Structures are given as structure tokens and as C-alpha cells.
Amino acid sequence: MSMRMRRKRNFDARMDACGDLLLAKGANGILNMKEAAETFRALVDFEKAFGNHQPVVLEIGCGKGGFVMELAVREPNVNYLALEKMSNVILTPMEEVKKRGIGNIRFLNIRAECLPCYIPEKSLSAIYLNFSTPLPKLGYATQRLTHRNFLNVYKKLLKTGGKIVQKTDDREFFEFSLQEYEACGFAVENVTYDLHENGNPAWNIVTEYERKWVECGSPIHRVEAVWNGDV
Question: Quick one: DSSP state of residue 124?
């Protein structure tokens, strides 16, 4: 039996204190995510949200936020969106961003299915998928974040030349993803089945999950899928 994460103390007050960082929460009460994505629109004005016209990059499944925070510090001339569907999880990185005063990160407390409700078409320069759940059981393929159902959503949100950057330790999931990218018209580039074969590349930000698997000797797979077509 799985254990539900205990709700953080003073959760509501702490979320309110970070409210200026949260651009979207839920889907206007609609439980059917497909219905929400098709019928509900509250598109984010990035210029208003960030106060500038800098490129916008999305990480889906930010967890504790270590990756997106490091990326935002390295690239101050890029705006970052961090998506995390679990409210109890997203609070931690929001508080850390506020504490550290990182000004180019905002958060989305929604499911990936609902991205079209909030993200304007052709507005993202890149999407990061770091160690997404592979969902290996038969029948769960359509829920994988690299299934063509999701890729067709991402295509609409990416600018021409925008890319999906994926890392995973799951070989089967990786090969499934490569097939899906190609089937959906993405150009697959910079494919590696062992990112750390010669040590960690200087440009690579090692996530907490990634470090765990590297220390166990598991190879990390990485790919960039570039969208050069029109929707």
C-alpha cells in the first residue's frame, strides 16, 4: 500500500506567501483533463508574469526544483516555468526560489494534460523532461509524457526550432520515446545511451534522481528532439 505524502504544516498560508510565483493551479474545477484542455483557457501573459520578453522554457515535473533553479541561475536571460502537479511537492521549490531571490522562475501547479489551457501556442523555446515516470505496465503507454498524445500538445506550444530535452535511466522507456519523437515529426539529435560514460559533461545539471542512479552504476540516456515543422 502506498503512503500519501503528509500535508505540510501551515500549508495554505505558505502557499499564499508564494502566490506571486504561481501562475496556474488546477483547471477551473474541471476534473476531466481532456475536457479542460479543450474548453478552458486562461493563457499566461509571459511579459506580465516575468516583466520582460526573454525566451521561455518549461520543465515538466520539477520535483524539489534543483534542476530548474540551477538552470535559471546559469541562464539569467531565459525565463523558466516549473510544472509540478502535486501541490504538497511544489511548495518546496517555490519557497526556495523566494528565499534565494531567483527572479526568472514561475510555477504551474497543474497536470501536463492541461498545458494548452495556460500556455500560448508557439511560445516555448524548450521543454525539459527529467526522469519522467516510465509507466512500464501494459496499457499505461498513453500516460507516458513522451507518448504521441503529449508530443502533439508540445508541438503546438513549441516555437519552430524549439526542442524537447529528455533524460531517463529507463532503457525501454527511452527507446519508446525515440520512436514516438520520430513518428510525430521531431528531428532526433544528440542521442546518448550513457551520458556519464566519460564523466559528467560540464554543461549537464545532475538532478538528485540522476545522481542516485549514476552512483549505482546505471547509465543515463539523453536525447534532444527538435520541432522544425508547423502545426
Answer: E
Distances from the Cα of 81 to the Cα of 77, 142, 209, angstroms: 13, 24, 20
DSSP conformational letter for 51: S
Q: What is the pLDDT along the chain (231 residues), one digit of tens a residue?
A: 344 567 778 889 999 999 999 999 865 445 565 666 666 778 999 999 999 999 999 999 999 999 999 999 999 999 999 999 999 999 999 999 999 999 999 999 998 988 999 999 999 999 999 999 999 887 889 999 999 999 999 999 999 999 999 999 999 999 999 999 999 999 999 999 999 999 999 999 999 889 999 999 899 999 999 999 864
For the chain, domain boundaries: 11-227
> What global pTM score does this model have?
0.92
Fold of 11-227: Rossmann fold (3.40.50)
Q: Where are the alpha helices (DSSP H) in the chain?
A: 11-17, 33-39, 46-50, 66-74, 87-100, 115-118, 148-157, 171-183, 208-215
The SS3 of residue 103 is coil
